[in-house]
Amino acid sequence: MLKMATLELYSKGASVWVPDPDEVWVSAQLLQDYKPGVNQLLLQLSNGNEVHYPVGSPSDLPPLGNPDILEGENDLTALSFLHEPAVLHNLRVRFLDYNNIYTYCGIVLVAINPYDQLPIYGEEVIDAYSGQDMTDMEPHIFSVAEEAYRTMTREEKNQSIIISGESGSGKTVSAKFTMRYFAVVGGAAQQTSVEERVLASNPIMESIGNAKTTRNDNSSRFGKYIEIGFGRKGDIIGANMRTYLLEKSRVVFQASAERNYHIFYQLCASRELPEMRSLRLDAPECFRYTNQGGEMQIPGTDDVSDLERTRNAFTILGVQSDQQMELFRILSAVLHLGNVDIQASGRSSDRSFIDANDRSLAIFSKLLGVEGSQMAHWICHRRLAVGGEMLVKPMTGQQAVEARDALAKHIYGQLFTWTVQRLNSALSTQRRRAKSFIGVLDIYGFETFERNSFEQFCINYANEKLQQQFNRHVFHLEQEEYVREELAWNRIEFSDNQQCINLIEGQLGMFDLLDEECRMPKGSDENWVRKLYDQHLTSKPHPHFRKPRLSNSAFIILHFADTVQYECEGFLDKNRDTVFEELINILKASQSELVAELFQQQGNVSSVSNGSVRSGKRATREHRLTVGFQFRQSLQMLMDTLNSTTPHYVRCIKPNDLKEPFVFDPKRTVQQLRACGVLETIRISAAGYPTRWTYEEFFSRYRVLLRGAQNQDHAQASCRQNLPQLIPDPDQYCFGKTKVFFRAGQVALLERLRAERLRSAAVIIQSQVRGWLARIRYTKIIWATVTIQRYTRGTLARRLALALRYTKAALVIQKTYRMVVVRQLFLMIRQATITIQAFTRGTLARRRYRVLVAERAAVLLQARVRGWLARKVYRRIRAAVVFMQCCIRRRAAKRELQKLKTEARSVERFRELNKGMEVKLMQLQLKADQEARESAALRETLNTEREATSTELEALRATIQKLESQKLEKPPPAPVISEKEVEERRKAEEKATQEILQLKQELQELQKEKDSFHKEKEELSARLLEQEKAQEERVHQAVSQASAALRAELDEERRKYQGLLREFTRLEQRYDNLRDMSLLTERNKGHQRTDSTQSLSLEPLSPSTPQSLTPLSLSPFPSAFPSPEEVRRVSVTSPSLEMRLSPWNFEPPVDQLMEKLDVAKVKMKGEDLAHAYDAVRVANKFLESQLRNQRSQREEELESLRRQLNQNISGSSSAAHRQHLQELLEAREHECVRLRRELKELRNTVSLRRLLTQVLPSAFTTDASSLSQPKPAAVTGLLECRKRDESKLIKVLITDIRVDTALSLPPGLSASVIFLCVRQADCSGDQTRARSLCGAAVTAMKAALKKHISDINMTALWLKNICLLHDLLNQHSPKQAVDSDDLVPLTADLSDLIRSLSDLSIQAYQQLLSITETRLQNIIVAALLESETISSLSGSVGKLPVSRKRAGSVGGDAPSMASVLRELGGLHTAMTQQTLPQTLMEQAFHQLTYLICASALNSLLLRKDMCSWSRGMQIRYNVSLLEEWLRSRGLQAGGAVATLEPLIQAAQLLQVGKKTEADAQSIIETCTALSSQQIVKILGLYTPYSDLDERVTLNFIRMVQGLLKGSSGSQPSHLMLDVRKVFPVTFPSLPPPVLSAEQLVIPDSLKISFLRKA
Question: Would strands 646-653 and 159-165 be described as parallel, antiparallel, or unpaired?
Answer without folding.
Answer: parallel
